[in-house]
Amino acid sequence: MDDATERSGARLSRRGGGGAARRAERTATRIEFARFITRNIPDLEILNAEAIEIIEANAEIVLEEIGVNFVENPEALRLWKDAGADVDGERVRIPRGLARQLCKTAPSQFTQHARNPERNVEIGGRNLVLAPVYGPPFVRDQDGGRRYATIGDFQKFVKLGQMSKWIHHSGGTVCEPTDVAVNKRHLDMLHAHMTLSDKPYMGSVTLPERAADSVEMSKILFGADFVDQNTVMTSLININSPLTFDGVMMGALEVYARAGQACIISPFIVGGAMAPVSVAGTLTQVLAEVMAGVAYSQLVRAGAPVIGGAFVTSIDMNSGAPTFGTPEAAQITLGAGQLMRRLGVPFRSAGSFCGSKLPDAQAAYETANTLNTGLLSGVNFMLHACGWLEGGLVSSFEKYVMDADQLGILHRLAKGIDISENGQAMDALREVGPGGHFLGSAHTQANFKEAFWRSSVLDYKPFETWEDEGARDTATLAAARVAKMLGEYQAPDLDVAKAEELNDYVARKKAAEPDSFLS
């Protein structure tokens, strides 16, 4: 195991001699956690200097001449007017250079704290933090098929995230638990993240009041003074592209910014529908929207941590459905990475995106394209890194573990190539010489356990063994992996007094108002 990986879990009993001990080690439950990725490889920069200059200039023109709408938010209009913007009704036109200047107070990197300090993540710089799927109302598994998600499903996904080695973050709305009232489900979701996982998590953004609940529950978990001085949540604030900032999202942003908690300020881009069909036009819109959003967060509280970026997809011009893993989306993601680095804020984009209805070959192709693009583009926070299916309508249990397994490849690629003395392997080359083989060489014996990345899901057995074991496809293997992980789940320790206080807070808040299944 490399030095970036920590192991915890059941202690191994040493029964008898070495053979028994090794058998016990192979069968004992071990929970492995990988540290967030720090890239030792260069970013792929697709925009040349001229293209960057043109896009940045055009984004300033958009802000100054076209402007952006801040709807149903008089306080935002006042703040912009006081900052020197031209406010006409709900339209805000931002003078050239003002938004970029305001963005300078946003930190280029920050720490999000987990309740287990060993799970803290550094967001920004050369780092990549991986978080699971967010938002689908449906779930899918091999036993139950496609169905509306429940709080039980939600809790299972949180447990899978806690048990997944390569996932650094518990996420937020990993699925939408439709069996809980809309006005109360945020409490149950946060409670699950806080108690079933000790990794970082996201807060609620569906109303400012729910964001406030997220802050209060975090104060119970971490302590009020700690939350006042540290970032313990990173939450998703979508921009209603094109060029519209609604009162609900901005209201949640205001709550988090004032509390010093981080927000992902992210346009929701479907090229051809919510942005131009051209890559350069879309990048211009993305940059203008992110600059306006980040600048506004700094008007609320200078120094508030933010992440800029975009959810990017194109559209099928025949059906109108979103498409994923396309070359145009990759170009936008790569270009947006350059623009965010120049803006000086951490970058969010990419994920396990696919339009497939099942965890099949289409899902694998599209997901692989997007994950690799995310790594090469310099993404710092990758939401939807595992579990996404059917254009984001479905959280799939099987695809969750398939994707989470493949995230190990991103960790390995990001390490770069070892050119140490051991990595050069000159001793092995001398030992084996012409016509030999390396299987028995001292270098192979010393390195074979960690030399190659190994999947925990995919099948590499001979045909006869595979057939004897039921000729299982990848989805079937993934279903078995889900069952194994949930069966081995171990809840992280939580202080009893904090657990009781969280339970009491949720119970009081839920009892304070009747159930509502309207947003």
Automatic annotation (TrEMBL):
Give the InterPro entries listed for this entry: MttB-like_sf, MTTB_MeTrfase
Q: How is this protein named in the record?
A: Methyltransferase
- Disordered: annotated segments: 1-24
UniProt KW keywords? Methyltransferase, Transferase
Report which residue ranges the record marks as coiled coil. none
Q: Which organism is it from?
A: Paracoccus tegillarcae
Pfam families recorded = MTTB
Q: Does the keyword Acyltransferase apply?
A: no
EC number assigned by the record: 2.1.1.-
Kindly list the GO molecular function terms attached to this UniProt entry: methyltransferase activity
Q: Which family does it belong to?
A: Belongs to the trimethylamine methyltransferase family.
GO biological process per UniProt: methanogenesis; methylation
